[in-house]
Amino acid sequence: MGGNGEEHLILLIEHFHESSKRASISNLSSIGVPLSLLFSSLTFYLMSGSPSFFLSLGWRIIFITSGTLTLLLSFLLSRILDSPLFEEIRGKGISRSPLKEALKGEWKKILALMLARNYITSLYYISTTFIITFLYSIGVPLSVSFSSLVFSSIAMILSQLVGSYLADIVGRKKVILFSSLSTSIMSIPYIFLISSGNHLLIYLSQSFFCSSLMFGYGAISAYIAENFPTKYRLTASNFTYQFSTPLSAIPQIIAPYLLYSRSPEISIALMLSAISLTSSFPALHRGHLWKGIK
Predict the structure, then answer these.
(1) 104-123 pLDDT, tens digit each
(2) Domain encompassing residue 232
């Protein structure tokens, strides 16, 4: 359902377009990311002690549960009306080619927003998927890896809530900039603490690093959506989201190869730090940001 995740965010923001708490409201949808990580990590942690059960029956339980939730979500979406803002422009005429119109007039803004979001997507997958391989390579049991994801997902949820709350007070860009810069700084100690193999340090470093990362995720949804007009807000926002994802694939491809470098910890830490740092510059993008949705 990730392909239409932005649709849920736009519906929330446009239905509450007059609210001063749009970042907090849109975060109610984004919080599903760490929530799903929490439940999936907890499930794999509980099943890690019995691989035979997972291979025989466990994966079927997960598959059926996720399928049921997908059907429930589809039903709920069918009951939701289009936003008042969209209904307003429907009578005036909808753009025949919203993507073409968005790219023609706002391609620089779209590119900047893609790069601003890149550090969140890239480092989220590094810290939740690659890190399992990394910990396994240094002899850390899978049960510890999955339990560390349980703790870090809880930290993500709390951090996102705080980030979205502050984004409604001090502004979206300040929250994103703080998140990207702090994540860049924390990348180096994060990798070295993880590399120690100490279970407590793994739990703490995972939680603090992911908190810093997802602090900006609480603001990025509203920040992207508010930069586009209603006539192509969904198209432009979704394009920004979906085409920032291939950028995040690059670190996932590079990271495993860095494990075989002369200094894997330094190489991986510098890569994470550089990704966060490069996202901080687009976060300062001075494009039009509405105080109210139009």
Answers:
(1) 888 888 888 888 888 999 99
(2) 2-284
pLDDT of residue 281: 76
Q: Which two tokens stand for residue 284?
A: 């300062």
| Structure-token pair, residue 190 | 């994060």
Structure tokens, 26: 């849109």
Tell me the residue ranges of DSSP E strands in 91-167.
none
Residue 294 lies in a domain: no
Task: State which amino acid sits at residue 28.
Answer: L
Any domain includes 291:
no
Distance CA 213, CA 273 (A): 12
Enter the tokens of residue 230.
């209603």
CATH number of the domain within which 213 lies: 1.20.1250.20
Question: What pLDDT does 207 receive?
Answer: 95
Q: Model-level pTM greater than 0.85?
A: no
Within a domain: 107: yes
3-state secondary structure 66-99: HHHHHHHHHHHHHCCCCCHHHHHHHCCCCCCCHH
* Alpha carbon distance 276, 274 (integer Å): 5
pLDDT one-digit tens code per residue, 238-265: 888 888 888 888 998 999 999 888 888 9
Structurally, how many domains does the chain consist of? 1
* Phi, psi for residue 170 in degrees, rounded to 5: -100, -10
